[in-house]
């Protein structure tokens, strides 16, 4: 295992310490618990709190989106492992500004169970909560079983839209509704060229030959829908867009935001080549792209590969997307 780390058992805590050291003007940890990350900037009284949580190893997801116009808090688990329900509960309490808290997170077994328990504990404290689960990965279940899909990079758009709605003063039900509306119009699919290595495990999460590509894998190294021989950037784009548009058809005149997300070890140049292919494809179909996102937004340690997310916009979602947000890993000054 070749990684620039110290003791693997200290990996997550040292990452958090590094983030707080670098971005302490924007982030802080809950007193006595460095696995709960909170905003360190002023919050308007009675603003709906928005929180998330999940395993480490996916930076900037999850804690990288805590900040103005996005999330109020994040509970941090070990690599690819859910944080505990107690940490989630303490985070919810810390992020209740008087109008309740939206729990917005990827749909995975441990996160679902622990957030449910945390919300029950919050209810005993008379803290109102709402839950919206991200299920944007089209490769993880067929359309008829979309409720079983896992959440991947599309959650970043949901964080942005929900955060903007909360900043506008919308109530808990309204913020939850617009987050769900966004997710109903978001689809993602990824491809992998290599596995990743969990520090405490010390070996690859899966194996793949040098001349192969895994189609539709999960961000924890879950099996995809098929393995193919390596393809060109244009061929990969055509395949992934085909799967996404079969699930969420678009028509001439539609407007979308597109995210080309690197999984940890893919050069920006390659992501831009894929974005170029998406842009040409959508232009030929009369589909407009607004505020493209190209870069690393939801990674899987050092996995090579990428995901493509398509977010279908209407006037409300477009307005919320362009509202300003400022976190250590996401800054949007467009208005």
Q: Output the helix-strand order.
A: HEEEEHEHEHHEEEHEHEEEHEE
Whole-number total of structural domains: 2
- Strand-residue proportion: 15-25%
Broad shape = globular
Structure commentary:
This protein is of the alpha/beta class and 335 residues long. It folds into two domains: 8-184, Dihydroxyacetone kinase, domain 1 (Rossmann fold, 3-Layer(aba) Sandwich); 186-325, Dihydroxyacetone kinase, domain 2 (Hypothetical Protein Tm841, Chain: A,domain 3, 2-Layer Sandwich). The protein is built from eight helices and 15 strands. Strands 7, 8, 9, 10, 11, 12 and 13 form a seven-stranded mixed sheet that branches. A six-stranded mixed sheet has the order 1-2-4-3-5-6, with helices on both faces. Helix 3 (109-124) links the parallel strand 5 and strand 6 (129-134). Helix 2 (85-94) packs across helix 3, helix 4 (155-167) packs antiparallel against helix 5 and helix 6 crosses helix 7 (268-285). The longest helix has 18 residues, at 268-285. The radius of gyration is 19 Å and the shape is globular. The protein starts with 10 loop residues before the first helix and ends with a strand.
Question: How are the elements arranged and paired?
Answer:
Layout: H1 11-23, E1 27-30, E2 33-39, E3 49-56, E4 73-79, H2 85-94, E5 101-106, H3 109-124, E6 129-134, H4 155-167, H5 172-184, E7 186-192, E8 212-215, E9 226-229, H6 233-247, E10 255-262, H7 268-285, E11 288-289, E12 293-295, E13 305-313, H8 315-322, E14 325-327, E15 330-332
Parallel strand pairs: 3-4, 3-5, 5-6, 10-11, 10-12
Antiparallel strand pairs: 1-2, 2-4, 7-8, 7-13, 8-9, 10-13, 14-15
């Amino acid at each position: 295992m070749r990684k620039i780390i110290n003791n693997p058992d200290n990996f997550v805590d040292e990452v958090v310490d590094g983030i707080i050291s670098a971005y302490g003007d924007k982030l802080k940890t809950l007193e006595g618990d460095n696995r709960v990350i909170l905003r360190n900037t002023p919050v308007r009284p009675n603003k709906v709190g928005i929180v998330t949580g999940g395993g480490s190893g996916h930076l900037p997801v999850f804690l990288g989106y805590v900040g103005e116009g996005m999330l109020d808090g994040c509970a941090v688990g070990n690599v690819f492992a859910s944080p505990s329900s107690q940490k989630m509960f303490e985070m919810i309490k810390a992020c209740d500004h008087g109008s309740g808290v939206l729990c917005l997170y990827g749909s995975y077994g441990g996160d679902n169970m622990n957030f449910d328990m945390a919300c029950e504990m919050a209810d005993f404290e008379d803290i109102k909560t709402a839950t919206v689960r991200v299920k944007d990965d089209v490769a993880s279940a067929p359309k008829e079983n979309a409720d079983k899909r896992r959440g991947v990079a599309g959650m970043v758009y949901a964080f942005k839209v929900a955060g903007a709605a909360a900043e506008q003063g919308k109530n808990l039900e309204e913020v939850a509704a617009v987050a769900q509306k966004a997710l109903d119009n978001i689809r993602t699919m990824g491809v992998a060229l290599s596995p990743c290595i969990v520090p405490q495990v010390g070996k690859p999460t899966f194996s793949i030959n040098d001349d192969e590509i895994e189609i539709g894998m999960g961000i924890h190294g879950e099996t995809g829908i098929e393995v193919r021989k390596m393809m060109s950037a244009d061929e990969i784009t055509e395949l992934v867009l085909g799967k996404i548009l079969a699930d969420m058809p678009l028509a001439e005149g539609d407007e979308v935001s597109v995210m080309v997300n690197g999984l940890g070890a893919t050069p920006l140049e390659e992501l831009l080549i894929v974005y170029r292919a998406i842009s040409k494809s959508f232009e030929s179909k009369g589909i407009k792209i607004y505020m493209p996102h190209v870069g690393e937004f939801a990674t899987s340690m050092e996995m090579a590969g990428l995901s493509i997310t398509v977010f279908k916009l209407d006037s409300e979602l477009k307005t919320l997307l362009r509202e300003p947000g400022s976190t250590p890993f996401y800054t949007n000054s467009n208005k």
